[in-house]
Write a structure and sequence with these properties.
9 helices; three-stranded antiparallel β-sheet; DNA-binding; mainly alpha; homodimer
DNA sequence: CCGAAGCCCGTTGCATACAATGCATACAAC
DNA sequence: GTTGTATGCATTGTATGCAACGGGCTTCGG
């Protein structure tokens, strides 16, 4: 059955990615319970690769075991702030490393130009209220910094955290008055990296992330 | 078959843990190729839960996809140093957070006593050349600090990194003259946390981890 | 003797069949 | 009316069968 007449062999990874994309897009919202058969039919495969994807995504922190079966992870405000703290530490690290590499002359000028362009495009998309695109570009800006740090371990850890944050903050997006501040902080980080100043870059990154964390939960009292 | 006459139902997680333990114990050394049937027979289950464990452990960073099938992750010296840098950033964070909590009076005295006892036992085991026990206690000391930070996200990220390091440094253990230095650095960290001094605690943790990284590859030239 | 091509076997990947568990609902007793 | 229990259903967990891919060995040709 399943119309799949054995084109097979190259699914096990793609199921993982497809499902991850579905979750990040909000197609499966936080807290949603995922059934194996349902997902299997949606993706047109059998339950086996779906189960494997569930395990992988659970280890990735996007799904959580919920008694029988799994649900999309749903972080409380407190848990989210824990994620942000770790993210701040890691982005401070990548910013420092990127600045060090710049100071050592190991960054091509084109890489910094790209980063600046990314900051521009992020700002523009935000001003024009293209939310989805703005989120995508913002994440890409941060990812680019991590790539400049040339530390795959840090990059991978950050991808995990960004994923979790993206899932859990989908609905609480963007106090509008933060637009200018965010852009300023991006510029500040960019400038510190360009100047090859690790301490300044790390501090800028940490501050930016922690500000974002504070902004992510305005209606919380505790 | 499989003699398992359906005691079943509670395996899927335990396979993951059993296999992880086997890898951490060095039963499957770095670079070793893992066959599904072989592991399945070893653990007395069918291939299905083993496959799921493979996926989960791959996401955990303990296994790596190798064309067809998986192998135990084998980090180069350079990759290992990337892991150590991230670990240093994260342990600096947890040390800071633990010290902050101490300053805020949120740590019970017993918790610090426990930590001190752990440092003692680690030192003693090292001096007496009980390698396995020393490694275990050392890890527990670091884990305890992370637990005092009360940030589950940081703790989880660190567990991943510790796992990877433990697998990849099994054979290059312990320059003997570092014993005293390690103990000193543990004491220094403990003192800074006890004093409720986040900056000092963070700095001590970072230095300790980076020193350990430097010691982990003495015969490397590049 | 060496190299290349072809075949065979082992192993993985996916699908499906089957067993068991937990939940919900309905019924009965108090 | 409420509570306890039993039964049926839906869904997960596990095992196994089947097809394809790949590596290794053999063999044939140069």
């Amino acid at each position: 059955m399943h119309t799949t007449l054995y084109a097979a062999g190259v699914q096990t990874g793609s199921i993982h990615h497809s499902l991850r994309a579905l979750i990040l897009d909000g197609r499966y919202p936080p807290g949603a319970r995922l059934g194996e058969v349902e997902v299997a039919e949606t993706l047109g495969v059998s339950r086996t690769p779906v189960r494997e994807a569930f395990r992988a995504l659970t280890a990735d922190g996007l799904l959580a075991a919920a008694g029988r079966g799994v649900r999309v992870v749903e972080l409380s405000a407190e848990e989210l702030s824990h994620v942000y703290r770790v993210r701040a530490a890691l982005e401070a690290l990548t910013a420092e490393l990127a600045a060090e590499r710049q100071r050592a002359g190991r960054l091509a000028p084109a890489e910094l130009t790209d980063l600046a362009a990314l900051a521009d495009r992020t700002h523009r998309a935000t001003v024009e209220r293209e939310l989805t695109e703005a989120v995508r570009l913002n994440r890409q800006f941060h990812r680019r910094v991590a790539e400049l740090a040339a530390n795959p371990v840090a990059l991978h850890s950050l991808e995990r955290l960004w994923d979790q944050i993206q899932v859990s903050t989908r609905r609480s997006l963007h106090a509008p008055d933060r637009t200018a501040l965010v852009d300023d902080q991006h510029r500040e980080l960019l400038a510190a990296v360009t100047a090859g100043d690790p301490a300044a870059a790390g501090a800028a990154a940490r501050r930016h992330v922690l500000d974002t964390c504070a902004a992510a939960r305005p209606p919380e009292k505790e």
